[in-house]
Design goal:
Length: 204
């Protein structure tokens, strides 16, 4: 069999799905549950880029297309923060695993765009997360505020090479807003947990 035939075989959902699940299971049973979710979300998000219908954004709002699952992309930025707590600097390895799995679920150009976007945002996110001493809830928002705009701009810019017309300010801005919304929701939940922990530690 030629490489193209083997690759086409691996991209069948009946084959790709068990491979993705097996990779997630490896991290999960190693005690890295957030990392398992992280490597699983990456191929899912890249698959959804082509599989999930988009909605047109009015020209008055910047034009382009809105991806309904953009908020999930925001959540993956947060999941990455939790995965980094588990893996430390090995988070880069988890990102590579997720991108390799993404080649089974989406166009190679989308994977490359996603990979470069993740690389840029991962670097920013890693720096904020590593060098900030603020509570986790604040680090989640700080890292998302810094990385979400870069992630969206790089991804949409490169993805427009295979999806003509997708590069528009409306697409970029709604994507950034959706990502920050997802990060904000998680940050509020974490902040509430932090407050409960502090109150429980106070002497009665």
């Amino acid at each position: 069999m030629r490489f193209s035939e083997i690759f086409a075989f691996l991209q069948q959902w009946q084959v790709a799905l068990p491979i993705v699940l097996a990779a997630m299971a490896f991290f999960f049973f190693a005690g890295k549950r957030w990392s398992a979710l992280y490597v699983g979300l990456m191929p899912f998000i890249n698959w959804s880029f082509a599989a999930v219908p988009t909605a047109a954004i009015p020209p008055a709002l910047g034009g382009g297309q809105f991806q309904p699952l953009a908020i999930v992309t925001g959540l993956v930025l947060v999941v990455r923060d939790f995965a980094q707590r588990e893996l430390k600097h090995w988070i880069w390895g988890a990102m590579i695993v997720g991108l390799l799995l993404s080649t089974l679920t989406s166009w190679i150009t989308v994977v490359v765009a996603s990979g470069l976007a993740f690389l840029v945002s991962e670097t920013v996110d890693w720096a904020v997360y590593t060098f900030s001493n603020k509570p986790l809830s604040q680090r989640i928002m700080l890292s998302s505020l810094a990385s979400a705009p870069l992630d969206q701009a790089v991804f949409i810019g490169l993805a427009s090479l295979v999806v003509p017309g997708i590069f528009a300010w409306g697409t970029i801005l709604t994507g950034v807003f959706s990502k920050l919304l997802g990060a904000w929701v998680v940050a509020r939940i974490v902040a509430a947990q932090e407050r409960r922990t502090v109150s429980e530690m106070k002497p009665a």
